[in-house]
Protein backbone atom coordinates (compact mmCIF):
# COMPACT_ATOMS: atom_id res chain seq x y z
CA UNK A 1 0.00 0.00 0.00
CA UNK A 2 1.37 3.40 -0.90
CA UNK A 3 1.42 6.29 1.52
CA UNK A 4 -0.25 8.87 -0.71
CA UNK A 5 -2.81 10.76 1.30
CA UNK A 6 -6.40 11.37 0.32
CA UNK A 7 -7.60 13.55 3.17
CA UNK A 8 -5.68 15.48 5.84
CA UNK A 9 -7.38 16.68 8.97
CA UNK A 10 -5.38 19.35 10.82
CA UNK A 11 -6.22 20.46 14.35
CA UNK A 12 -9.96 20.24 13.73
CA UNK A 13 -12.39 21.07 16.51
CA UNK A 14 -16.17 21.06 16.34
CA UNK A 15 -18.30 22.72 18.99
CA UNK A 16 -22.08 22.33 18.95
CA UNK A 17 -24.01 25.20 20.52
CA UNK A 18 -26.23 24.27 23.45
CA UNK A 19 -29.46 22.52 22.57
CA UNK A 20 -32.84 23.31 24.13
CA UNK A 21 -35.48 25.91 23.30
CA UNK A 22 -33.39 28.75 24.75
CA UNK A 23 -30.06 27.10 23.88
CA UNK A 24 -29.64 26.81 27.64
CA UNK A 25 -27.95 23.42 27.55
CA UNK A 26 -24.14 23.51 27.68
CA UNK A 27 -22.26 23.49 24.39
CA UNK A 28 -20.61 20.22 23.35
CA UNK A 29 -17.05 19.95 22.10
CA UNK A 30 -17.61 16.96 19.82
CA UNK A 31 -14.11 17.13 18.33
CA UNK A 32 -11.13 18.56 20.14
CA UNK A 33 -8.02 19.35 18.05
CA UNK A 34 -8.16 16.24 15.90
CA UNK A 35 -5.35 15.63 13.39
CA UNK A 36 -5.45 12.59 11.13
CA UNK A 37 -4.39 11.52 7.66
CA UNK A 38 -6.47 9.17 5.52
CA UNK A 39 -4.10 7.34 3.17
CA UNK A 40 -5.15 6.34 -0.32
CA UNK A 41 -6.29 2.72 -0.51
CA UNK A 42 -6.35 2.01 3.22
CA UNK A 43 -9.12 0.98 5.56
CA UNK A 44 -8.84 3.44 8.44
CA UNK A 45 -10.80 2.29 11.48
CA UNK A 46 -12.22 4.98 13.77
CA UNK A 47 -13.09 3.35 17.04
CA UNK A 48 -14.62 4.78 20.21
CA UNK A 49 -17.62 4.54 22.47
CA UNK A 50 -20.90 6.35 21.88
CA UNK A 51 -20.51 10.14 21.87
CA UNK A 52 -16.75 10.12 21.23
CA UNK A 53 -17.14 12.14 18.02
CA UNK A 54 -16.81 9.48 15.30
CA UNK A 55 -19.89 10.44 13.28
CA UNK A 56 -19.11 14.14 13.62
CA UNK A 57 -15.70 13.43 12.05
CA UNK A 58 -17.41 11.60 9.17
CA UNK A 59 -19.90 14.46 8.65
CA UNK A 60 -17.07 17.02 8.53
CA UNK A 61 -15.30 14.98 5.82
CA UNK A 62 -18.57 14.71 3.87
CA UNK A 63 -18.99 18.49 4.14
CA UNK A 64 -22.30 18.11 6.01
CA UNK A 65 -20.79 20.10 8.91
CA UNK A 66 -18.15 22.83 9.02
CA UNK A 67 -15.29 22.72 11.54
CA UNK A 68 -15.34 25.34 14.29
CA UNK A 69 -11.58 25.58 13.85
CA UNK A 70 -8.86 23.74 11.98
CA UNK A 71 -8.65 22.60 8.40
CA UNK A 72 -9.58 19.62 6.22
CA UNK A 73 -7.59 19.26 2.97
CA UNK A 74 -8.46 17.00 0.07
CA UNK A 75 -5.91 15.59 -2.37
CA UNK A 76 -6.13 16.57 -6.02
CA UNK A 77 -7.34 13.59 -8.03
CA UNK A 78 -6.50 13.36 -11.71
CA UNK A 79 -7.80 10.26 -13.47
CA UNK A 80 -6.29 11.11 -16.84
CA UNK A 81 -8.72 14.00 -17.17
CA UNK A 82 -7.64 17.54 -17.85
CA UNK A 83 -9.01 18.94 -14.63
CA UNK A 84 -8.08 17.88 -11.13
CA UNK A 85 -10.94 17.21 -8.76
CA UNK A 86 -11.60 16.59 -5.08
CA UNK A 87 -11.97 12.96 -3.96
CA UNK A 88 -15.55 11.72 -4.33
CA UNK A 89 -16.75 10.45 -0.94
CA UNK A 90 -19.87 8.32 -0.43
CA UNK A 91 -21.40 7.05 2.81
CA UNK A 92 -22.99 3.85 4.10
CA UNK A 93 -25.13 4.19 7.21
CA UNK A 94 -25.76 1.96 10.18
CA UNK A 95 -29.39 1.17 9.41
CA UNK A 96 -29.84 0.08 5.79
CA UNK A 97 -33.61 -0.07 6.28
CA UNK A 98 -33.80 3.58 7.29
CA UNK A 99 -31.30 4.81 4.71
CA UNK A 100 -33.04 3.20 1.70
CA UNK A 101 -36.35 4.63 0.48
CA UNK A 102 -39.14 2.09 0.96
CA UNK A 103 -40.84 3.39 -2.19
CA UNK A 104 -38.03 2.53 -4.60
CA UNK A 105 -36.98 -0.76 -6.15
CA UNK A 106 -33.42 -2.07 -5.85
CA UNK A 107 -32.81 -1.00 -9.47
CA UNK A 108 -34.03 2.56 -8.79
CA UNK A 109 -32.07 2.78 -5.53
CA UNK A 110 -28.79 1.77 -7.16
CA UNK A 111 -29.35 4.04 -10.19
CA UNK A 112 -30.32 7.11 -8.13
CA UNK A 113 -26.83 8.47 -7.18
CA UNK A 114 -25.80 8.52 -10.87
CA UNK A 115 -29.05 10.17 -11.92
CA UNK A 116 -28.54 12.84 -9.24
CA UNK A 117 -24.91 13.40 -10.34
CA UNK A 118 -25.38 13.31 -14.12
CA UNK A 119 -29.05 14.16 -14.48
CA UNK A 120 -29.64 11.30 -16.90
CA UNK A 121 -30.57 7.65 -16.84
CA UNK A 122 -27.94 5.03 -16.12
CA UNK A 123 -26.92 2.23 -18.44
CA UNK A 124 -28.72 -0.85 -17.06
CA UNK A 125 -25.57 -2.93 -17.44
CA UNK A 126 -23.86 -0.65 -14.95
CA UNK A 127 -26.57 -1.35 -12.37
CA UNK A 128 -26.29 -5.07 -13.06
CA UNK A 129 -22.49 -4.97 -12.62
CA UNK A 130 -22.84 -3.01 -9.35
CA UNK A 131 -25.28 -5.59 -7.95
CA UNK A 132 -23.11 -8.49 -9.11
CA UNK A 133 -20.09 -6.91 -7.44
CA UNK A 134 -21.86 -6.97 -4.05
CA UNK A 135 -22.99 -10.56 -4.51
CA UNK A 136 -26.71 -9.89 -5.12
CA UNK A 137 -27.11 -12.60 -7.73
CA UNK A 138 -28.92 -13.65 -9.81
CA UNK A 139 -29.35 -9.92 -10.33
CA UNK A 140 -32.66 -10.29 -12.21
CA UNK A 141 -34.29 -11.64 -9.04
CA UNK A 142 -33.34 -8.51 -7.06
CA UNK A 143 -33.90 -5.64 -9.52
CA UNK A 144 -37.64 -5.21 -8.89
CA UNK A 145 -37.62 -5.95 -5.18
CA UNK A 146 -38.32 -3.33 -2.50
CA UNK A 147 -36.06 -2.96 0.57
CA UNK A 148 -38.67 -4.33 3.00
CA UNK A 149 -38.57 -7.68 1.18
CA UNK A 150 -34.80 -8.06 1.70
CA UNK A 151 -32.80 -9.27 4.69
CA UNK A 152 -30.65 -6.80 6.66
CA UNK A 153 -27.47 -8.10 5.01
CA UNK A 154 -29.01 -7.87 1.53
CA UNK A 155 -30.16 -4.31 2.25
CA UNK A 156 -26.64 -3.36 3.33
CA UNK A 157 -25.32 -4.88 0.06
CA UNK A 158 -27.77 -2.67 -1.86
CA UNK A 159 -26.47 0.32 0.13
CA UNK A 160 -22.89 -0.63 -0.81
CA UNK A 161 -23.80 -1.06 -4.51
CA UNK A 162 -25.49 2.36 -4.36
CA UNK A 163 -22.34 3.87 -2.86
CA UNK A 164 -20.02 2.13 -5.35
CA UNK A 165 -21.89 2.88 -8.59
CA UNK A 166 -20.57 6.44 -8.79
CA UNK A 167 -17.02 5.05 -8.47
CA UNK A 168 -16.08 7.03 -5.37
CA UNK A 169 -12.52 7.41 -4.12
CA UNK A 170 -13.62 6.76 -0.55
CA UNK A 171 -16.54 5.33 1.38
CA UNK A 172 -17.35 6.33 4.93
CA UNK A 173 -18.97 3.27 6.50
CA UNK A 174 -20.62 4.47 9.72
CA UNK A 175 -21.34 1.43 11.91
CA UNK A 176 -22.37 -0.62 8.83
CA UNK A 177 -22.62 -3.94 10.67
CA UNK A 178 -23.90 -2.96 14.09
CA UNK A 179 -27.51 -3.89 13.24
CA UNK A 180 -26.62 -7.21 11.59
CA UNK A 181 -26.14 -10.69 13.02
CA UNK A 182 -22.45 -11.40 13.64
CA UNK A 183 -22.04 -13.85 10.77
CA UNK A 184 -23.77 -11.49 8.29
CA UNK A 185 -21.58 -8.69 9.66
CA UNK A 186 -18.46 -10.73 8.83
CA UNK A 187 -19.80 -11.22 5.27
CA UNK A 188 -20.18 -7.45 4.87
CA UNK A 189 -16.65 -6.82 6.21
CA UNK A 190 -15.29 -9.43 3.80
CA UNK A 191 -17.17 -7.72 0.96
CA UNK A 192 -15.56 -4.38 1.90
CA UNK A 193 -12.10 -6.02 1.96
CA UNK A 194 -12.78 -7.61 -1.41
CA UNK A 195 -13.79 -4.23 -2.87
CA UNK A 196 -10.64 -2.64 -1.50
CA UNK A 197 -8.56 -5.35 -3.19
CA UNK A 198 -10.42 -5.11 -6.49
CA UNK A 199 -10.79 -1.35 -6.84
CA UNK A 200 -8.24 0.21 -4.48
CA UNK A 201 -11.03 2.19 -2.81
CA UNK A 202 -10.34 3.84 0.56
CA UNK A 203 -12.63 3.14 3.53
CA UNK A 204 -13.18 5.11 6.72
CA UNK A 205 -14.72 2.46 8.94
CA UNK A 206 -16.51 3.97 11.94
CA UNK A 207 -17.31 1.51 14.72
CA UNK A 208 -17.62 1.05 18.47
CA UNK A 209 -16.37 -2.54 18.03
CA UNK A 210 -12.57 -2.82 18.28
CA UNK A 211 -12.67 -6.45 17.14
CA UNK A 212 -14.46 -5.51 13.91
CA UNK A 213 -11.97 -2.65 13.40
CA UNK A 214 -9.09 -5.09 13.95
CA UNK A 215 -10.56 -7.50 11.41
CA UNK A 216 -10.75 -5.04 8.55
CA UNK A 217 -8.51 -2.00 9.20
CA UNK A 218 -4.96 -1.26 8.06
CA UNK A 219 -4.69 1.54 10.63
CA UNK A 220 -6.84 2.41 13.61
CA UNK A 221 -7.51 5.72 15.39
CA UNK A 222 -8.97 5.40 18.89
CA UNK A 223 -11.27 8.27 19.92
CA UNK A 224 -12.34 9.31 23.39
CA UNK A 225 -14.28 12.48 24.29
CA UNK A 226 -13.57 14.11 20.94
CA UNK A 227 -9.83 13.42 20.95
CA UNK A 228 -7.71 10.82 19.18
CA UNK A 229 -6.00 9.15 22.11
CA UNK A 230 -4.12 6.54 20.12
CA UNK A 231 -3.30 5.85 16.47
CA UNK A 232 -1.34 3.03 14.89
CA UNK A 233 -1.31 0.09 12.56
CA UNK A 234 -3.81 -2.65 13.32
CA UNK A 235 -1.02 -4.78 14.77
CA UNK A 236 0.31 -1.96 16.99
CA UNK A 237 -3.14 -1.23 18.37
CA UNK A 238 -4.00 -4.86 19.06
CA UNK A 239 -0.64 -6.16 20.31
CA UNK A 240 1.13 -3.10 21.63
CA UNK A 241 -1.33 -0.36 22.58
CA UNK A 242 -0.34 2.18 25.22
CA UNK A 243 -3.49 4.02 26.21
CA UNK A 244 -5.55 2.66 29.09
CA UNK A 245 -8.75 3.33 27.16
CA UNK A 246 -7.59 1.17 24.20
CA UNK A 247 -6.61 -1.56 26.66
CA UNK A 248 -10.07 -1.44 28.22
CA UNK A 249 -11.74 -1.70 24.79
CA UNK A 250 -9.56 -4.71 23.97
CA UNK A 251 -10.29 -6.31 27.30
CA UNK A 252 -14.03 -5.93 26.84
CA UNK A 253 -13.74 -7.54 23.36
CA UNK A 254 -11.57 -10.46 24.41
CA UNK A 255 -11.92 -10.74 28.17
CA UNK A 256 -13.88 -13.03 30.46
CA UNK A 257 -13.58 -15.96 28.11
CA UNK A 258 -15.79 -14.41 25.43
CA UNK A 259 -15.16 -15.65 21.94
CA UNK A 260 -15.14 -12.88 19.38
CA UNK A 261 -15.50 -13.97 15.80
CA UNK A 262 -13.76 -10.98 14.28
CA UNK A 263 -10.43 -11.54 15.98
CA UNK A 264 -7.99 -13.34 13.74
CA UNK A 265 -5.60 -15.94 15.04
CA UNK A 266 -2.61 -13.65 14.38
CA UNK A 267 -3.61 -11.65 17.45
N1 LIG B 1 -26.17 18.41 15.90
C1 LIG B 1 -25.72 18.31 17.15
N2 LIG B 1 -26.04 19.24 18.09
C2 LIG B 1 -25.56 19.15 19.35
N3 LIG B 1 -24.75 18.14 19.79
C3 LIG B 1 -24.41 17.20 18.90
C4 LIG B 1 -24.87 17.21 17.54
N4 LIG B 1 -24.35 16.13 16.90
C5 LIG B 1 -23.61 15.47 17.81
N5 LIG B 1 -23.64 16.09 19.01
C6 LIG B 1 -22.93 15.70 20.21
O1 LIG B 1 -21.55 15.57 19.87
C7 LIG B 1 -20.97 14.46 20.56
C8 LIG B 1 -20.36 13.50 19.55
O2 LIG B 1 -21.41 12.93 18.79
P1 LIG B 1 -21.12 11.86 17.62
O3 LIG B 1 -22.45 11.51 17.04
O4 LIG B 1 -20.09 12.39 16.73
O5 LIG B 1 -20.52 10.65 18.46
P2 LIG B 1 -20.31 9.12 18.02
O6 LIG B 1 -18.98 8.72 18.54
O7 LIG B 1 -20.53 8.98 16.56
O8 LIG B 1 -21.45 8.40 18.82
P3 LIG B 1 -22.39 7.15 18.39
O9 LIG B 1 -21.47 5.95 18.31
O10 LIG B 1 -23.38 7.05 19.49
O11 LIG B 1 -23.00 7.49 17.05
C9 LIG B 1 -22.09 13.83 21.40
O12 LIG B 1 -22.00 14.35 22.71
C10 LIG B 1 -23.37 14.32 20.71
O13 LIG B 1 -24.42 14.42 21.62
TrEMBL record:
One of its GO terms (biological process) is transmembrane transport. Keywords: ATP-binding, Nucleotide-binding, Transport. It holds the Pfam family ABC_tran. Gene3D superfamilies: P-loop containing nucleotide triphosphate hydrolases. GO terms for molecular function: ATP binding; ATP hydrolysis activity. Transmembrane segments: none annotated. This is Peptide/nickel transport system ATP-binding protein. It comes from Methanolobus vulcani.
